Amino acid sequence: MWATIKQKWQGFISLFSFKSEHSGWRNVIFTALGFLLILILLVGIYWSAEPDPFDVRIVTSEKLALTGHANVVGATTTATLIHVTETMLEKPGGYLTNDVLPPGVYLDNIPNWEFGVLVQVRDLSRAFRENFSRSQSQSTEDPDLIIAEPNLHFDNDSWLFPPTEVEYGEALDRLYAYLNRIADPAVVDAQFFARADNLSAWLINVESRLGSLSQRLSASVGQARINTDTAGEGNATQSTPTGAELAVRTPWLQIDDVFYEARGATWALMHFLRAIEVDFAPVLEDKNATASLRQIIRELEASQRTVFFPVILNGSGFGIFANHSLTMANYISRANAAIIDLRDLLAQG
């Protein structure tokens, strides 16, 4: 009988040891998962930092050093377009819009920032292809820009077959080739024309983009707006009739998306205009428009001030809480108004 009791007791002890062993493994697994979760959160915070501004003149010198050529008209704008695109792709975490794994998959601020940058990059690349690189409407398009511009319009969230980064990388290779060709004095079939009409044509797009962003940011608090879609022309019509007043409001979950898209757009545009100030300096001086351009840059620089609160606040216009969207809309609206004035100056003889 004692032998039977001993056997049962040993069996109970072994069962308890087995459970303890499994419990130990379970603790190790849960601890490892906890550390992994913390690591993912910390990496996500690091990846969510917006890139710092850069000096367009220094960047141009670095890019031209790779070509072995001296600075020429158009080199600063081209080098800035290249560097802005590279920053979008190579910042901490790389290009996040098409990520399908954590932490990139759950981040949304920086992907919206990337989209704002991308829209400005696309607009400027189109201006290069259609305006800056051509002397007139009947002149031929630059062979490198013919490839670079549509590649930058490739789907921005493709993660496979091919990944977005591959298409944008090919566009960068073509932009580098274009920069090398305009800087090479022996190559005459690659040009950058710094003319008032070319600059004005691009600024029309910039004006439209900023106007849209300003309206979307202002709609964070909800507004009843007078419908001005057909104002100014008595015989103007539209496809679908709308009311005399429109209620507009940005959905609550999209407020920070619009804000960071605007941050990306103004960050890129700020650098592009700094480059324009260098390459179009004689044109701006001739039109007495340098001060107007610098004021636009000043407003865009103000839009890049540090956000000291971890959440994008959406207080009412005159409430006790801040409204980051309305603050951003203020800077963008002022920059947009200054662009309208700049275009008027460029149109004057």
What is the fold's blueprint, element by element?
Blueprint: H1 2-47, H2 56-67, H3 75-90, H4 109-132, H5 143-152, H6 164-183, H7 196-218, E1 223-226, E2 245-248, H8 255-279, H9 281-286, H10 290-302, H11 324-347
Antiparallel strand pairs: 1-2
Helix pairs in contact: 2-3, 3-4, 3-6, 3-8, 4-5, 4-7, 4-8, 5-6, 7-8, 7-11, 8-10, 8-11, 10-11
Please tell me about this protein's structure:
By secondary structure, the chain is mainly alpha-helical. It has 2 domains: 55-191; 194-224 and 245-349. The chain contains 11 helices and 2 strands; from the N terminus they run H-H-H-H-H-H-H-E-E-H-H-H-H. The chain has helices spanning 2-47, 56-67, 75-90, 109-132, 143-152, 164-183, 196-218, 255-279, 281-286, 290-302, 324-347, and strands at residues 223-226, 245-248. The protein has a two-stranded antiparallel ribbon. Helix 4 (109-132) runs antiparallel to helix 7 (196-218) and helix 4 (109-132) runs parallel beside helix 8 (255-279). The chain is globular.
Sum up the structure in keywords:
mainly alpha, 349 residues, 2 strands, 2 domains
Q: How are the strands ordered across the major sheet?
A: 1-2
CA radius of gyration is: 28 Å
Proportion of residues in extended strands: under 5%
Quaternary status of these chains? Answer: single chain
Figure out the total of helices.
11
Mean pLDDT: 89
Largest sheet: 2 strands, antiparallel
Structural class: mainly alpha
Overall geometry comes to globular
State the end-to-end CA separation: 116 Å
Give the domain tally. Answer: 2
- The H/E string reads HHHHHHHEEHHHH
Tell me the helix content. 55-70%
What's the total count of β strands? 2
What are the low-pLDDT stretches, counting only 5+ consecutive residues below 50?
Answer: none
